[in-house]
Amino acid sequence: MRKNNLKKKIVIGSANFTQIYGADPTKIKHNEIKKILNLAKKNNIYKIDTAEAYLNKKNVFKNIDKKFKFYTKITPDSRWVSLEFCQKKLEKHFKIFNTTKIETILFHDIKVLFTKNGLKIFRNLEILKKKKYFKKIGVSIYDTKCLSYLIQKYNFDVVQCPYNILDRRILTSGWFDDLKKYGVEIHARSIFLQGLLVNKLIHKKKYFKKWKIKISKWFIWLEDNDISPIDYCMSDLLNRDFDRIIVGINNSKNLDEVINFKTINKKKMINFSINDKKLIDPRNWE
Questions:
Q1: Is the entire prediction scored with pTM above 0.90?
Q2: Are residues 98 and 66 in contact, defined by beta-carbon separation less than 8 angstroms?
Q3: Which domains are delineated in the chain?
Q4: What is the tens place of the pLDDT at every residue in 218-245?
């Protein structure tokens, strides 16, 4: 894949626009959000990933350019079996965005899809999809093991999953190829593992002591080869055919580095993957 093609796939992750988020806990100031979005516009990046759970500040997207399209995650409960409730809930949620361009609705927590209410809630969303409330329905997952059940039971359009130089499960499980065969879009998130792979100070926290050698090896290797972590992580994605790449950033400088990353020769790349969920799944971090 060419670098320019990868740029077209970038989606701005907005988890830290309204809350403290990530291994490097940062909440971005309003002025910095403006700078990020202006830089995105200059580079024809008009996609934002967000979630109902992130939007405790209702005005963060109030005056946003109407060209921006949103991927937003929801957490339905049993009340969503009512189509009327489902519709009202989404209408209230969508008011935050200053646009009618909701690209994809994703289940933020897939537990509900394993309950007796799952199918009814999903069908309600399919009805609203036909009414053009949004274009696609997706699931946001942490682990590929749930996919064998979900793919049989539900006709979703998108899977958003973690992928980075440590976490290769979407590839090694065979699900990347399978989802492509089914015509399902695959969106990569956690490409910097909530900052752990690009900020060498984070792994010095007490929780990461167990993997200190592994993570230190990563940063030492980068320094020895004069490669920036962002350049490596972005270059790695050139070798994969993800449909969208969700990029979490702390400031406009980060976004500029992502957009203008230097391509690393594929022959220089080495295998850093690990299967330890206590490291690669941030829900386990303490």
A1: yes
A2: yes
A3: 3-284 (3.20.20.100)
A4: 999 999 999 999 999 999 999 999 999 9
